[in-house]
Amino acid sequence: MARFGVEEEFVLLDEQTLVPSAMSPETRERILSEAGAGVTPEYLTCQLESATEPCLTRADAESQLRRTRGMLGDVAADQGSIVAATGTPFISPNRLVVSSSPHYDAVSAQLVEITREHEVNGLHIHVEVPDEEERIRVVNRVRAWLPPLLALTGNGPFAHGRDSGFASWRSILIRRLPASWSPPVFRDLTDYRSHVKQLVSMGAIAEASSLSWTVRLSERFPTVEVRVFDVQPTIDDTLLAVALTRAMLVSDALDGCHGVGADAIDASLWTAARYGTDARLVDPASGAVESASTIAEGLLERLRPALAQLGDEDFVTEGIARIRTDGTGAERQRRAYAERGTAGLRELYRASTATT
Questions:
Q1: Burial, 335: exposed, middle or buried (Cβ in 10 Å; 0-12, 13-18, 19+)?
Q2: E strands of the chain, at which residues?
Q3: Is-contact 177 206, C-beta < 8 A?
Q4: pTM for the full model?
Q5: Residue 196: what are its φ and ψ, rounded to 5°?
Q6: How far apart are CA 331 and CA 219, in angstroms?
Q7: Pick from 18, 39, 43, 15: which is nearest to 29 by CA?
């Protein structure tokens, strides 16, 4: 059974204003110390990232995610703050500070003005694929199927204190980066490395770890890393994305369904980011334009054998049904704001680290 790992990015908000709260070095050290291993600084000083240890089962991942989210929520509450699981914050002062490190300093120097708005929080899922060439085949196989997953998991509807009109504003901000959204098809591992080397030589990225593709090879682990998701509002939402991703990466059910060009995939990612579950996308299986819901149902049917083998079939079926009923994270955020304004968002964000 393939091992997997989960990385979640969070933003620290002032409890009263919901403005991203830059942490002093002392505050950050306290949070990192009390939250424990697996929590690290992110690009901006208002961000934190958590990472699980390698997991074999969904229950193992759930236990780790619950523990880390709970600790982060408790520590933040002691300081009058909220750790929010949202793809983009509701409002921003556009005067953010980059975390000091050689890597982040290089990224900031490259992105310049883009950094002022680059408040993005994602969910990154690693799945172990021991053979290097097989990792390339997996990247080629899944790239066209990521738009329906984005449609199901958009969780960043706000920008500058207003509705952006997008289900995932984070995805649109990511699009401004070099080497973003869908990767090309690669002939083999050598071809992949050649593409990355060219991007580095151009100065488009500082190093391979700066790739912003929706799916890429990890530079640290023997894994394929799927990066299309906004950070999810609840642990169950995260686990749904994990279960779908793991099944996609270990199953051969998607073989022969990746003839869609990068332009069509990117257009589908845009419409998924814009309209969420109401988006119309290019179906990788047929090349026809279909609703995101229809393509997601087709994907689920293809993955049922793998999901059943992994013990995730019922969980995923129920999770997709729950999204149809309760909405995506973006829809839940919009509903909370429509009903109670920022107070509604405050309670929704607090719930993202509630573990009872």
A1: middle
A2: 4-14, 39-41, 47-51, 81-84, 122-128, 158-159, 162-163, 180-181, 212-213, 215-217, 223-230, 280-282, 289-291
A3: no
A4: 0.93
A5: -65, -45
A6: 34
A7: 39
Q: Which two tokens stand for residue 329?
A: 């994270």
**End-to-end CA separation in angstroms for the chain:** 29
Phi, psi of 335 (to 5 degrees): -65, -45
Please state, in angstroms and rounded to a whole number, the distance separating the CA atoms of residues 109 and 295. 40
Pairing of strands 289-291, 280-282: antiparallel
Residues 155 and 231 sit within 8 Å (Cβ to Cβ): yes
**Sequence-ordered list of residues with C-beta below 8 angstroms from that of 286, at least 6 positions apart, any chain:** none
Per-residue pLDDT of the chain (356 residues; tens, 9 = 90+): 789 999 999 998 989 999 888 766 666 777 777 666 677 665 567 788 899 999 999 999 999 999 999 988 888 888 888 999 999 999 876 656 555 555 555 666 666 556 667 689 999 999 999 999 999 999 999 999 999 999 999 999 999 999 999 999 999 999 988 899 999 999 999 999 999 999 999 988 888 888 999 999 999 999 999 999 999 999 999 999 999 999 999 998 898 776 789 999 999 999 999 999 999 999 999 999 999 999 999 999 999 999 999 999 999 999 999 999 999 999 999 999 999 999 999 999 999 998 65
* Two tokens, residue 98: 């980059």
Q: Which residues of 318-330 are buried (b: 16+ CB within 10 A; e: fewer)?
A: ebbeebeeebbbb
137 token code pair: 């085949």
Q: Residue 143 contacts by C-beta under 8 Å, 6 or more apart in sequence?
A: 182, 183, 185, 214, 215, 258, 265
Please answer whether residues 127 and 2 qualify as being in contact, where contact means their C-beta atoms are separated by less than 8 angstroms. Answer: yes
Cα(29)–Cα(18) distance, integer angstroms: 22
Residue type, 269: L
The span from the CA of 156 to the CA of 197, in Å, is 32
Q: How large is the C-alpha radius of gyration of the chain? A: 19
Are the beta carbons of 206 and 106 closer than 8 angstroms? yes
